Amino acid sequence: MIQGVDIVEIARISRLSSHSRFCERVFTKRELTLAERKHAKRRYELLAGRFAAKEAVIKALGSLLVEPTPVEYAGLPQLTSEQVSSDESNHYPVGVSFHDIETLSHLSGAPILQLHGEAKRIAKSYHLSHFHVSLSHTNDLAIAFAILS
Question: Which residues contact residue 7 at a Cβ distance below 8 angstroms, ignoring those fewer than 6 apart?
Fold first, then answer.
C-alpha cells in the first residue's frame, strides 16, 4: 500500500482555469464535464480537488522511487533510472500524464479514482490494483488523500 496527499488553493485553480489550455492539459473530458455541471464556485472546488488528487497519486507513485526497506517492498521491483524524472528536485515517474489520473463521481457523490496509461502500468507492476481517494475542501483550499493498494 502506498499513499499520497496534496493540498491546493482553489483561487489558484480558478485563475489557471481561465486559460483553456490549462484545463485541456490537466483534466480529462469527463472531469471537465462534471465541472461544467456546477455553479462557478463549486466548479473551481471540484477542479481543485481533482487537481489535488492527481498530485497525490503522482506523489504516491513517486514514493516507490525512495530506497525500499525489506519490510516495505519485499520482492517488488524498483523503478529504473529511465523511468524517473531527471530533475533531482522531484521523484515523479516519467511518462505519467495528468490525463492518466482521473477522478469521477459515484451517484452518491463519492469520488472514484481511476488510473490509465503509464500510471496504471506502474501501479500494476507493483501489484497495486485498488485505487482510493478522499477529497475535502474549505472556502480556500482543496485537499486529496490517495491510497493505492
Answer: 52, 141, 142, 143, 144
pTM over 0.85: no
Closest by Cα among 49, 62, 53, 39 to 12: 49
Per-residue pLDDT of 105-132, as tens digits, reads 999 999 999 999 999 999 999 999 999 9
Q: Which helix (H) or strand (E) holds 48?
A: helix 40-62
Domain extents for the chain? 2-148
Q: Does domain 2-148 have CATH number 3.40.718.10?
A: no
CA atoms within a 13 Å half-sphere pointing along the CA-CB vector of 130: 4
